[in-house]
Amino acid sequence: MDDKKVVDEVVAGFADRPPFAPLADKTHDGAPSALVVGPAGSSYSLTLSVDRSRIEIFSFSPCFRLPDDMSRRADY
Predict the structure, then answer these.
(1) DSSP secondary structure, 28-50, as one string
(2) How far apart are CA 62 and CA 65, in angstroms?
């Protein structure tokens, strides 16, 4: 798998899709990665697994604020 090619294709795929903003980057160990920031502060990160056998996609969205007495780490 050509990991740089995959990252470049993801970045190119979001380049002309406002409000998404893609960015090619590198992980702390130098592997290619991509970050796509979307609407309302959402973000999507594409990196290779540690053993570089698969692509991992992580997402984040600040959809709502939990009340102070609730933990984001708890099961609901």
Answers:
(1) TTS-EEEEEE-GGG-EEEEEE-T
(2) 7
- Give the amino acid at 26: K
How far is residue 9's CA from residue 6's CA, in Å, rounded to a whole number? 5
pLDDT one digit per residue (tens) for the chain, 76 residues: 688 898 999 999 999 999 999 999 998 888 899 999 998 889 999 998 888 788 899 998 887 777 888 887 777 6
User: Quick one: which of 29, 37, 30 has its CA closest to 10?
Assistant: 37
CB count in 10 Å sphere of residue 12:
11
Q: Using CA atoms, how far apart are residues 33 and 57, in angstroms rounded to an integer?
A: 10
pTM score of the predicted model: 0.73
